[in-house]
Design brief:
Length: 556
């Protein structure tokens, strides 16, 4: 056995976590509300739909729900263009229905984490029309990032920067000034040097915490602080800059942590303290650890396994590095394979290593052809491995059903701004946002009484909750067993690597003596001693087949 990997809090961690630290080893289920359950039949998921499915979440065994944006929005970016941070989109529900949902979740002992989108508002937010109506240099414009354009009349943008969704990052307003939008034009970036912006978000955090929200997922957490001191570099110069960490013009600047220090003061004013997790796309894992510090947000998404190839050495390296970072930051790590922004991992693992996913989506998922059986087998094995690790695991709605990416959505139904902004060259993220199938029949397979805002493929019927509940070998049954065993076996945040494991096997033991073993190779390997409590696939003749994970406990 190698050295013990443990967080600083491991000595005091018990089999169950107290209210203040529930998040450290939680299973968090992400709900993309427009695609989860539709109660009123308008084709869009809603809060009443979520409330109606709380019993499903309880039976599944999750500890918390992460709710993607439900705020008023024109849906220029799937709800991440927020009109009002302290209200509910009428298409999704009301504040009263939000309170009913919170009460139902709490009755089921499920925590609630909500998305907060601080980098930008929508162009329909009350502040933005005020900014457009005001003069350059006004307090109203100072809430956003406005700059005068180049040329005698400001007719050219301040720089040729490209937005994340494609196209220019600056938009003219007709008076020689331009506003910055690092995403869609309907998402103007806020100026976080403005005290009014900072104060308003503190008010928003308190608004939702007072309504019973347990934590926040912080969108684009790395993007708030910006240095737009002229002259601005060109996009080519920006891409070529080799600046010290924390000095990029608009990503992962050191000053962003001053903002989150203020947020932490708000979180810690509650009993128990509210939690937060950063979506921070940064260049190095140590930079990500700063977002997870106790003085900041407390936890940060670790996307390293999501990006890793199906390879034992790569998985082990990622795990070792992130557990070491957890010791440094004092936080626990997070493990995730799918979310609302990426191709579902059951499909990623079905494709040859190194497949260009954007190019594959342009073929409607036909070239190369996915190996569906292998993809699901690896997805189940990867998930069971992650559930065995110290830290929290994030599950994206539908992965417990083994849902694949819907790659063949026709252009006329696509909603992701990436499709339009890229001129039809990037299909975008709609394929992982197709509404869930709950039943084997119906116009939207039980998603709602009518059709769904994105069409479901016919093959979803056999992947529905109704169909899988009748099958003990289904992916849903597997997830339910795995989450129940995880809760039963949960222990201190440490693991010990098995030194005698073959090169293509990842095996480790958790406190209490239970073992997780994953076979990344092509040939079966012997199982270690112990009694199997859950496995991602059948285990013939006491062997662990390829692309399979098993958990074992000591024999009584």
């Amino acid at each position: 056995m190698s050295e013990l990997l443990a967080t600083d809090a491991a000595d005091s961690a018990g089999a169950r976590l107290d209210e203040a630290s529930w998040w450290r080893q939680a299973v968090v289920y992400q709900i993309y509300p427009r695609s989860f359950a539709d109660a009123n039949g308008d084709g869009i998921g809603d809060l009443r739909g979520i409330t109606s499915r709380v019993e499903y979440l309880r039976e599944l065994g999750v500890d918390a729900v992460w709710l993607s944006p439900f705020y008023p929005s024109a849906l220029a970016d799937g709800g991440y263009d927020v009109d009002d941070y302290r209200d509910v989109d009428p298409k999704i529900g009301t504040l009263a229905e939000f309170d009913e949902m919170v009460a139902a979740l709490k009755a089921a002992r499920i925590k609630l984490v909500v998305d907060i989108v601080p980098n930008h508002t929508s162009d329909r937010h009350a502040w933005f029309p005020e900014a457009l109506a005001a003069a350059p240099g006004s307090p109203e414009r100072d809430r956003y990032v406005f700059r005068r354009g180049e040329g005698p009349n400001g007719e050219r943008p301040p720089s040729d920067w490209t937005a994340n969704f494609g196209g220019p990052a600056w938009e003219p307003v007709g008076d020689g000034q331009w506003y910055l939008h690092m995403f869609a034009p309907e998402q103007p970036d806020l100026n976080w040097e403005n005290p009014e912006v900072r104060a308003d978000f503190l008010k928003t955090l308190r608004f939702w915490a007072d309504r019973g929200v347990d934590g926040f997922r912080v969108d684009v957490a790395h993007g708030l602080a910006k240095d737009l001191t002229p002259p601005l570099p060109s996009q080519a110069e920006l891409d070529a800059e080799n600046l010290p960490d924390g000095m990029h013009r608009f990503q992962d600047r050191d000053e962003v942590h001053e903002i989150y220090k203020e947020w932490r003061e708000v979180f810690d004013s509650y009993d128990p303290p509210r939690t937060a997790v950063a979506e921070a796309w940064v260049d190095s894992a140590p930079r990500r650890a700063r977002y997870a510090s106790p003085e900041g947000l407390g936890q940060a998404f670790n996307f390293d396994l999501l990006l890793a190839a199906w390879d034992a050495a790569e998985f082990r390296e990622v795990i070792e590095e992130n557990l070491a970072l957890s010791r440094t930051s004092g936080a626990s790590s997070t493990w995730v394979f799918s979310n609302h922004d990426v191709v579902r991992h059951a499909t990623r693992y079905a494709l040859p290593a190194g497949t260009d996913l954007k190019a594959w989506l342009r073929t409607d998922g036909t070239d190369p052809k996915p190996d569906v059986e292998r993809g699901l087998r690896r997805a189940r094995a990867a998930t069971l491995l992650a559930l065995a690790l110290p830290g929290s695991t994030y599950v994206y709605q539908g992965e417990e059903l083994g849902l694949p990416e819907v790659a063949d959505l026709p252009p006329e139904v696509l909603q992701d701004p990436t499709w339009v902004r890229s001129g039809g060259t990037r299909k975008g993220r709609d394929g992982c946002r197709v509404p869930l199938p709950w039943t084997t029949n119906g116009p939207s397979l039980g998603f709602g009484p009518g059709s769904a805002h994105l069409p479901q493929p016919a093959r979803f019927a056999e992947l529905s909750v109704e169909h899988q509940r009748a099958d003990d070998t289904s992916t849903l049954a597997f997830y339910t067993r795995a989450l129940a065993e995880r809760r039963r076996l949960q222990t201190a945040e440490s693991l010990e690597w098995a030194q005698d494991a073959p090169a293509d096997v990842v095996a480790f033991t958790r406190p209490g003596g239970w073992t997780s073993i994953t076979n990344f190779g092509t040939d079966p390997v012997p199982l270690p001693a112990g009694r199997v409590v859950v496995s991602s696939a059948p285990l013939p003749d006491g062997q662990l087949p390829a692309d399979t994970t098993a958990w074992l406990v000591p024999e009584a």
